[in-house]
Structure formats: C-alpha cells, structure tokens
Input
Amino acid sequence: MSETATPEQGAEIDDQSKRDFLFISTAAVGAVGTAIAAWPFIDQMNPAADTLALSTTEVSLEPIEEGQSITVVWRGKPVFIRHRTAEEIADAVAVQANDLIDPQTDADRVQKPEWLIMVGVCTHLGCIPLGNKAGESRGDFGGWFCPCHGSHYDTSGRIRKGPAPKNLPVPEYSFLSDLKVKIG
Amino acid sequence: MDTNNMHPVMKWVEYRLPVFSFLDHSLGTQYPTPKNLNYWWNFGSLAGLVLVIMIASGIVLAMHYTAHVDYAFDSVERIMRDVNYGWLIRYIHMNGGSMFFIVVYIHMFRGLYFGSYQAPRELLWMIGVFILLAMMATAFMGYVLPWGQMSFWGATVITNLFSAIPLVGDSIVTLLWGGFSVDNPTLNRFFSLHYLMPFVIVGLVVVHIWALHVHGSNNPTGIDVKSEQDTIGFHPYFTTKDLFGMGLFMMFFMFFVFYAPNFFGEPDNYIPANPLVTPAHIVPEWYFLPYYAILRAFTGDFLVYQVISLGGLLMDAKLAGVLAMFASILLLLFMPWLDGAKVRSCSFRPIMAMAFWIFVLDCLVLGYIGGKPAEGNFITIGQWATFYYFAHLLVIVPLVSRLERPRQLPDSINASVLKAAE
Ligand code: HEM
Ligand code: FES
Output
C-alpha cells in the first residue's frame, strides 16, 4: 500500500489523472458541505417565527375625520392612514404619472380613493416623514416631507423631489368592512 | 538574550517558553529602532493603550447593561446613577471611543505624510485600514446599545444603506435587522458583535505588529536603516518616550471624562428611542461625519454622479453615494501603488507635502459639512470637497508622486541626526 501512495523518488506517477480527480472531488464535497453547514448560522439572523407571526394588524377607521391622519404600528414600522379630502384626491389624480421619479398613478396606490394607506418610512434611508400630524411641514407637494435629507412626497405619497428613489410603499391590506382594515 | 544571570524561575520558564527573549526582541533592548523617530510615532502605542482601556471599561459595563429594547436605556441610566463609579466607567468608555478615533486618524495621517505605506510596508498599512474598518463597525454598534434616539435612528439610517444594493438589498437589510425594522433582535445581535469585534481588533493588531517587526519602523526621513549607527534599542529609549506620551494623552483624555463628558455626544441620545418619531437632525458621531458628507454629496444633479453613472443610467444617486462612501476608505488600501515615488517622506517632497496638507484640510471640511443639514451652500461645498477627496487619491497622488523631483536625501539616518544637532 505505502509504495503505491508515495512513489519512490523520481518514479513516474502513472495514475496522475485519477489522483487529480480524487483530490478535486474531495475538495469540492468538503467545500459544499462547509457551505451548507454555514447556512443555519446565517439564516438564524433572519426574522424568527414569532416575529413573522406579528405581521398583521387590524385598524378601525371610524375615528378618522376627513383631512386627518393616524399612524399605526405594523411589523414595528409606522403605517400612515390618511382620510384624504376631495381636493387632495383631485391633486393626486391630476398628476401625469410618466413625469414622476417613480411612475405610479393614484389609482395604483389606493383601494378606495378617500383612504390612503402606506408605510411611513422614507425610501431614502428610513426616517419617518413629517406631515401626518396637524401642524407638521407637509413639503412642497402638500403630502409628506422627510427632514433627514429633504425628500418631498405628494398627496398620494409619491416621491416628487429629493434623494429618495421610490414612492412610500403601499402595504398589503384588505377592507374587512367599510370602516375596518387588516394590514398585512 | 543572556540567560545566565537570569533569576532561576525566569530561567526555568525561559527554557520551556521563551517569553523573555520574545519580549526583548519585540519591545526590548534587542529591538533596533530608528533613533530619529519624532512624536508622531507615539500614536501607535497610544492606540494600543486606548484599545486596552476600551476592553476593560466595556467588560465592566457589560456586567450591568441589559440588551433589551425595554430595558437598555434604563440600564444605562442605572449605570450612570446607581452603580458604584458607573458614571466614571461609562464616561471613560464613551469618550474612549472618540479618543480612539482621534489617535488612529493622527496615526494614519502620519503614515500618509511620511510614506510609511510604501514598500516593504504595504501589508502593514493595509492591515491598518482593516483595523479602521473594524473599529468603525465596533463603534457604530456600540453607539446603538444605549438605545437613545440617535442610537435608534443612526442604526436605521446606516443599516438602510444596504438597501441601495440592487436586487438583494432589501433581503440583506431584513437579515441585518432580524425583523422588519430596527428592533429587539437587532439590539441583541449588535451587543453580541460589539463584544466580539474588539477581540477581532486585538487579533488584527497582533498581525499589524508582526508585520511591523519584519522591517521595523519607518522614520521621518523615510530612508532605510543602513547600519547599527542608525538605531537604538526600543528599551529603554522608546518605552520611556511612549510612556511619557501616554501621560500627556491621559491628561487630554481625562479632561473630557471629568470636565466635558458629553462634549463629543449628542443630547438627543438621552431621549429614549422612539421608532415613530425621527429627530429633526440625524447626525452620526463626529468620527463618521466626513463619510456621511460623501454619502450625502451624491444627489441627482452632482456632476461626479452624472459622470460615473453615465447620466443616471448605471445606478441611482443613493447607490452611488453608498459606493462612494465605502470607496473613500477602501481606496486607502491602494495607497502603496497610487503613490509611485521612489522617496517615502514628504519632508523631501515639497509639492506632495502641500497636497497632503490640502487633503487634511479637505477631510476637515468634509467633517464640518457632514454635521450640517443638507441644504443650500452646504450641499455645494460638500460636493466640491467630495470631488477633491477622490481627485487627491486618484489624480494628484499618482501624478505628483511620479513627476515631482525630490530634494537631496541625507546619506543615512545617523547623518541626518548629526546634521540636525549642528
Ligand atoms: C474597540 C473597542 C471599543 C469601541 C470603539 C467601543 C465603542 C463604544 C461606543 C461608542 C459606545 C456608546 C457609548 C455611549 O454613547 O453610551 C459603546 C457602548 C458600550 N460598549 Fe463598547 N466599545 C469598545 C469595546 C467594548 C468591549 C470590549 C465591550 C465588552 C463587552 C464593550 C461594551 C459596551 C457596552 C455594554 C456598551 C453600552 C453601555 C453604554 O452605552 O455606555 N465595548 N461602546
Ligand atoms: S431618509 Fe428621508 S430623505 Fe433621507
């Protein structure tokens, strides 16, 4: 055995390709095995089952008057719910979607025009835009304004000016009744 | 080392584990050191001192700290008010972070001025850049732990940088958070990693010093050691000088700890984190401000952005800003090759010396801009300063280093010392 494994000094190795094959296949199996074993150590960082389980929120819309907004928490993030005025809806609909940074019509963003529901997290670097509370700055387009680096959103929550690349995202939601929504 | 006149116990140990000769060759009489090192060479040992202080104070803080969103802020306040000397230990740790960056930034600019990154010290320099990156990660995660408003929103903004990566960005951010926003899982992992990283830094420092000891220290003339006349033993000369420097440095450090403990901090971080309210001005700790200015310089109309993105085709401004911010540090790794001069020290390269000082000024301007709101003239100045930062590293250094004719070098370190003494 030992003489075949280590040929004498200067001796010809006549099974070099077999040795190469064994070496490469062993290394490959080892590398794949290590990669598979590493996955649990990476994936443990992803949201755990209990974090995922908290992922729907039900909200009653009854107390929200026209022209008012509320902020609810969904998956640890603020969700803006705005009861839009007729004027705000008209402004949002009047905009030509093609001219926008992130083109979307108002109809793409609402199920019922008077209720605008979206995640209140600036798509630039994650600050909470102002404008959901009375008296806060609502930016150049009458919607929301992110003070962190100056992003302006319109009455449909679309980005109009500033560094943010995308419109405020609309979460999945459904109306359970006329005045009750389930977010998530 | 002469083992004959050692104490018998030392001799017994030395025979089995040669620690004494190892120390003597690393920091002792047997480590030949250029005899002309000036005070800029003190900052390496100062960085080592701060690292030890950070680990000691950090481990003590961890005995009282609770890594949970409901308790973290209160546990830090308890350290401040109720734990015996907790205020002192926390202020040491808090200001120690700033001291660490002051010392390391001076240490790095020293290297840039005297050409310490040039052959054969390229790896030594590159390991240093990795130490800086590890320090930045450590300090960033440490700042999240007290769970104040700046902790929370700093963490939110910085982790969101990764969302700029095409396709996988959002999944990476979710992975970093362990949820759908910065929350309890995030705080827990940051505490775990904040505890780990300093020991990774210790490991990097060991390799850094190992590489240093292969060719020894560079020196203010930048010329190689040629004979024994150029050197003196590290002990007692530089051990003494380093200790003297540490004494001065500790006075500086302790001035802040005792008389201005919140000088480097943000008052907003004494407000408990509130995920629903963003502070009006989010600013990172001062040592991150230059990078923050580079990040924010990239708006849609910034000329440099228009050029590198081919008029916006290749990437959006957010991604460009993130890439530029990382590039601003990673480019330093290439300094040994960007600089093509045959002479190391800027003392003999007057044009390069001038470029160096303008670069220092530019970094200070970036730092100033990073702390200001992104509006009006601040944006324009930040963009020019960003442009200059990259122009220095990518154009000025490669060209000047290759075109400038250096002044006459002294014959040896010894000759330069004797001449200076005349
Ligand atoms: C490379 C060295 C280190 C650096 C640069 C560093 C940096 C920081 C910074 C900037 C803070 C925030 C201070 C504040 O605003 O309150 C912090 C907090 C903290 N660090 Fe470190 N740290 C280091 C090493 C360590 C070590 C080894 C431990 C040991 C576990 C530790 C434990 C803590 C704890 C428990 C806190 C939270 C308490 C507090 O906020 O005062 N640190 N660190
Ligand atoms: S996070 Fe809103 S503008 Fe940057």
Q: What stands out?
A: Residues 283-422 of chain B form one domain. Chain B has 17 helices and two strands. Chain B has a mean pLDDT of 95. Chain B touches chain A at residues 153, 156-157, 159-161, 163, 174-183, 185, 189, 275-278, 280-282, 296, 299-300, 316-318, 374-375 (CB under 8 Å).
